[in-house]
User: Fold these one by one.
Assistant:
Number 1:
Amino acid sequence: MKIKRILTGMLLFLGIIGILDTFLLLLYNGGINLGTILPGVVGGLLILWGSVKAFFRKFVPMGKSRPWFLKARQGVFSLFLIGLISFLVVEGAIVINSQPDPVVEVDYLIILGAGLNGEQLSSSLWERMQKGLDYLERHPLVKVVLSGGQGPGEDISEAEGMRRFLVDQGITNERIIKEDRSTSTMENFRFSKEILVRQPGFQNSERVAVITNDFHLFRSKILARRNGLIPVGILSPTPWYIVPNVYLREYFAVVKSLIFDW
């Protein structure tokens, strides 16, 4: 009985942590997305589950008087176990595939959008642009495709926000190609491929450099290949304070992409 009380207390504690995590990110990082709100939702469910368990333990007798509850609990536990196994497998694949590829010569670089706050780059997108700027300065003949449409809370397209950043840093417009229609990673690559095949001399067999965050590389390379591109991953760092959120969000994004993004 003491162990059960400890487990219930842990559920409540983790639930509070999840809600605080969402609150602090909304307060200091800005922007509402799945990675931001998911810890709060999961936290609320953990608190609810812990409260329900405590209520039944105190007020409803165990045993034959409530076999329906025992069966329901067994079903919930089975679903939880399946979900946990899939989570560990997918997250393992994300982590294992979060390493940059060896440097190779390319003619085109794709930088994937990662959100704006009004007209300002989000922290993740700012990191990607810093990495992209460094790459373009070291490879002056490479052209860049800036891929990202306009979403909720954004006053301009992500592609336009990225273009302004590069121009302000001295990259000429002649090297910049905007893809400003996409609203997902799948569309990032679909619309970028449509642009690339119209570029003089572009060959489907050539490699294309892609800049994104470590947590996003696994899914990005899968979707790039589905769109006929051969990606070379270049990583930008992920701000430490959003690491738990983005890796949690990426699990759901990977499952969704594996099933629906074709």
Number 2:
Amino acid sequence: MTFEFEELDYQQTPLGDISLRRRSEPRLDGKILYEVKLGDEFLMSSLFTEAEIQLARLGLAELEGSELDVVVGGLGLGYTAVAALEHPSVRSLAVIEVMQPVINWHRQGLVPLGKELVSDPRCTLIHADFFAAAASPATGFDGSTTNRLVHAVLLDIDHSPSHWLNPGNSAFYTPQGLRNLADKLHPGGVFGLWSNDPPDADFTRLLDSVFQSSETHNVTFPNPYRGEESANTVYLAHKA
């Protein structure tokens, strides 16, 4: 019998019911896909990962130094985290994920990149609220009581700066929220953000008001369902 669909996990969380599915896609010659849903909303798919990968590659490309400490906000299927670990200068990677089931998927090997992340001694998966950690002036992303600075923060949680998974996340996308984040970066550090929407000029101006400079990257990728290319946005902001 040809494999078609399997629900690998289903859990209730404070943000809603989350599920991990594995299925074959007949329109792609039976390609196996992994998908995550929160309630009735699709959060991510292993078919569309180029922008998540580029978030890490673009965000780390201009950093100097041989011992970089990096934070990824949002674990998902792990593509941003794995791409960050491919950078030869990354010394440590802390991945902050608010949903424990997502961390469990990786530790249990239910997703393709899980074993690679869990087995890398540089990588730590942390069950915590990224936005609470970013807002706290007294603690680091790793939960320590000192505000340990990092060289890059790469964020892929909300759909865009104005389309949030949780309304409480909105406070991050404000001048004070971004200043709190900038205070956790070393001088010359980088903040990178994935967005499903086209570049937002208002958000770019907001980044420029907090950081020394910012830029946007339009990341395109094939969309076989539409028969054309789709695009996501990667924002990069540089601390002076």
